[in-house]
Amino acid sequence: MDDIFTQCREGNAVAVRLWLDNTENDLNQGDDHGFSPLHWACREGRSSVVDMLIMRGARINVMNRGDDTPLHLASSHGHRDIVGKLIQCKADTNTANEHGNTPLHYACFWGQELVAEDLVTNGAQVNICNKYGETPLDKAKPHLREALQEKAEKLGQSLTKVPFKDTFWKGTTRTRPRNGTLNKAAGIDFKQLSLLAKINENQSGELWQGRWQGNEVVVKVLKVRDWSTRKSRDFNEEYPKLRIFSHPNVLPMLGACQSPPAPHPIIITHWMPYGSLYNVLHEGTNFVVDQTQAVKFALDIACGMAFLHTLEPMISRHSLNSKSVMIDEDMTARISMSDVKFSFQCPGRMYSPAWVAPEALQKKPEEINRRSADMWSFAVLLWELVTREVPFADLSNMEIGMKVALEGLRPTIPPGISPHICKLMKICMNEDPAKRPKFDMIVPILEKIRCKVTCNLLFLIKKALPKTTRCCIILKLVLWN
Length: 481
What we know:
The chain is of the alpha+beta class. Helices cover 41% and strands 11% of the residues. Keywords: ANK repeat, Cell membrane, Cytoplasm, Membrane, Repeat.
C-alpha cells in the first residue's frame, strides 16, 4: 500500500481508514516537507478523508515547514466546505506563515471570494500585514476588496494596518507534525542513545533527557532486581503493546532496549516541554491553568481514557494520575504509556495511592473492574485540576492507602467550585463501582461544560473591559478554545 500521504492526496478513504485502525500509525506525523495527512487532504479537497482525520484527532492548527496550516491550503484552493469544517473545529483564522500571509491573504490572492467572505465572517482580520506590508485587501481584486471592507466594518473590525511583528494571535496553537520515522522501529540500538541530563530518580529507576535519531526524547532506565531470561522475554513481549500512536491524547512508548553491560531495561518516549500535569499544577511552571484550561485538560484525559478502554485486551497495570499525564507543546494532555508498569516491576505495590479507587486498594487486580477504578482516579484528577492542590498532601503514601481503603478518607470538595463540575466529580466518585459512568459517557458532558465556561468568561470580559481591549481578548479566546 502507498504511504498515508499519497492516500490522503488521492482521497482513498478506505485505505486511510485501514491505516488509522493500526494503533502504531500516527495520524499527526509529517512528510519530508512537514505536511501532515490533514495538510494533503485539505489541499486536494478530500472532504471525506478530512472528516475521518478530524474525527480521529488530527491537529487542526499543525504547521508545515513553511508555517502553512491546513486552513491556508484549503483557503488557497477554494475548498469552501473544508474551510467551514476547519473553522468549526477551532482552526486559527489569523495564523501567519513564514511570509506573514494568513489564510485570508491566500483566499484574496487566488480570488476565492466565498472562502474569503467566510473567513472574515469567522474572525479573519482584513488589516493584518504580511512581511512585505501587504494586507489581504491589498491582495484582492477591487470588487472583492470593497465587499470584504464593507463586511469587516459591519463586524467592527479596525481597518488600520497591523504590522507583521504586532500579530497578537500567535500562541500555543502553533505546532509541527511529529517525526514519522520514530514509530518505525520498536527495537532501539543503545549505542544510538545519548543521555544528556538526569531528570529524576526513584525506586523504580532513573529518568533522563536524551537524544535519539536527532530527536529529543525521555529515557527511562528501569531498576529491576535479579534480571533473568524470563524477565527479558516478558519485557520484549510487553513493551510493543505500549506503542500506541493512533490517538492524540495517548503518548506512546517509542521503543525499548537493554543496556550493556548490565542488562537494565530501557524505554524511551517523546520529550514533553511542559513535563507532567503534576509539574504544571504544582511545581511552579510558567503556565497558568485557569478554569477553561483545566476543563480542556480534563476533556483531553477523558478522550484518551475512552480510547484506551476500547482496546481489547485493555492495557494492564496502567495507573491514572497527574504524574502519568504529560502536557504537549500545544497544551494537549496525553496519557503516557511509558508509565505503565511491567509485570516484573514490584507486583502489588501502589506508588500513587491518592488517585487509586478504594476497591483497588482492598482487592486483587483480577477482582476489580478496571474501567470503574479508572473513573475514580479521573474524579480525583478532576478535583486536583479545579483545586490546584495535591490530594492528601499532608499524609504519607502508606497513610493515604490505609485511610482511603479502610477509614473512608475522600477528597473534600471546597466551596466555589462550578456546580456542574462538582456534580460530575460526585458521579465519577460513586462508592459503588457499578454506578460510575464510562468515559465515553462523560466526554460530551465535559464538552458542554467547556463551552459554558468559555461563554461565561466572554460575558465577564464584555462587562468589564473597554470595547477595543475586549475585542482583542475575545478573539484570542475564540481562537484558542
